[in-house]
């Protein structure tokens, strides 16, 4: 990971997340297995970068982990049995037709944060992500980069133990990408486990603690980032890291 400036250092206040376990997980559609069987455990805070070519099953894996999809076979579980506080950020920001601050306050209410704490948490998160001046702006009038920062601010306000990010930067320009990567650092510093998909091998090199590499719906390897980038084991990962076209 690249080093952080002092202004970006944040205190660690998040309880360590429970381990996430995939055991023989598959996801199928109309008799076609799209993912799996897939087994791995995430017990650190990553960042875990989920990589692989188009259609490899990266988004499916994230959605299964976050509970948005159910496996056809196998089991997705959290150690201790109780899912952690978790949030997900998508490629296209998902925001309500209301102001930036109201989007955050709504999320805090849905997550049972006491009413008296919501305003302060929401404004604090907007400030952290450079959006304080836009608090009353309708969220859908913000630029693409600002909208993505707003989804990150919303996640930040919820203090998630686990944050899933599905291609969060693929529609953004370099400045906006940098803001998202800084946010990823900040979540990680605070103790949030990051699980993120990306197509961008350079971004993965900047961010990854470990890598889950998929191709053709199969998990080819789960290794520390250094191993993945320097000595990938599977032929598919070797080709991917070498910049060849992989299906
Ligand atoms: N809910 C779903 N129901 C049926 N098929 C799906 C569903 N979601 C994804 N698929 C299919 O599963 C395969 C894997 O999709 P997925 O979105 O996980 O790939 P990906 O690795 O994230 O690809 P990309 O890099 O293009 O985003 C694709 O063929 C896709 O069309």
TrEMBL record:
One of its GO terms (molecular function) is ATP hydrolysis activity. It comes from the Bacteria. The keyword ATP-binding applies. One of its GO terms (cellular component) is plasma membrane. Keywords: ATP-binding, Cell inner membrane, Cell membrane, Membrane, Nucleotide-binding, Transport. It is a peripheral membrane protein. Residues 20-241 form the ABC transporter domain. It is found in: Cell inner membrane. Its main location: membrane. The keyword Nucleotide-binding applies. PANTHER family: AMINO ACID IMPORT ATP-BINDING PROTEIN (PTHR43166), GLUTAMATE_ASPARTATE IMPORT ATP-BINDING PROTEIN GLTL (PTHR43166:SF9). Belongs to the ABC transporter superfamily. This is ABC transporter ATP-binding protein. It comes from Marinobacter vinifirmus.
